[in-house]
Specification:
By secondary structure, the chain is an alpha/beta fold. The chain is built from eleven helices and eight strands. Helix content is 42%, strand content 15%. Helix 1 links the parallel strand 2 and strand 3. The radius of gyration is 19 Å and the shape is globular.
């Protein structure tokens, strides 16, 4: 299946096998809203990782995220040597971290994707400068109508816009790529909400750092018994920078 052509990318649960064989089997469990960004790194760190993404639509029901993650961990534990979690707390109120602690799985630091794209310090600075800030990422800009307009019922009740967004002053688009089409969508979203528009390029920020450090730890373990394979994996981790304008196309 090609997720880009699916009826609703936000509802998809997808899995991609590793592209580089490694002595230790590693699974990254991630939010579907991060899928394209994670896969753009798979020529490097993710070449030796399997990736499973839960549906991004779970953000509309955050009380379900923690147990959905627990289910995936338990379903895959026997097949993998290491499992990592690429999710923010995302409105679970700490429930996700409690589950991960119980299951022994490491998560990327940060309460949400805005923080691991922009960094927690930069996100805090933006909120301090203007508390009335609404954020978009590449994923949210692409799916603004589905997740925001339809999700909040504004397609049926447009008069509710100011009830939802009346206290916001600006929309900040945290851009992972230099894509004029996505920037245009983000600007259109700002106009639709009646907000000032600002674009800040982030690249992949903390996502790349987390994956590199995770692969580095796995390569260190593998080196004890499979030094040649571990060296190849370690080279991918240390030598390949992320290019926001390139990377692997959305896979079929």
């Amino acid at each position: 299946m090609n997720p880009e052509r699916a009826a609703d990318e936000t509802q998809i649960e997808s899995h991609w096998p590793r592209r580089v064989e490694a002595p230790l089997r590693v699974l990254v469990l991630a939010c579907g809203a991060l899928a394209r960004e994670i896969l753009s790194l798979r020529e490097g760190p993710l070449g030796a990782f399997d990736v499973t993404c839960l549906p991004a639509s779970l953000h509309n029901r955050p009380e379900r995220i923690a147990e959905a993650m627990r289910g995936k961990i338990r379903a895959n534990r026997e097949r993998y040597d290491e499992i990592f979690c690429l999710y923010g707390d995302c409105g679970t109120g700490g429930a996700l971290d409690r589950v991960l602690a119980e299951e022994g799985v490491t998560r990327i630091e940060g309460p949400h994707c805005y923080a691991f794209y922009a960094s927690e310090a930069e996100f805090a600075a933006m909120m301090e400068a203007e508390p009335g800030t609404f954020f978009l990422t590449d994923f949210l800009a692409r799916h603004f109508d589905r997740l925001v307009i339809e999700g909040l019922g504004l397609d049926r009740f447009p008069q509710l816009r100011d009830d939802y967004f009346g206290n916001y002053r600006r929309l900040v688009y945290l851009a992972q790529t230099d894509d004029p089409a996505i920037t245009e969508r983000a600007e259109a979203a700002a106009r639709r909400l009646g907000l000032a528009f600002e674009r800040r390029f982030t690249g992949l920020g903390g996502i790349e750092r987390f994956l590199r450090s995770s692969v580095g730890a796995v390569a260190d373990r593998a080196a004890r018994s499979h030094p040649k394979i571990a060296a190849a994996v370690g080279s991918a981790v240390s030598d390949r920078p992320y290019s926001a304008g390139g990377g692997e196309p959305w896979p079929t």
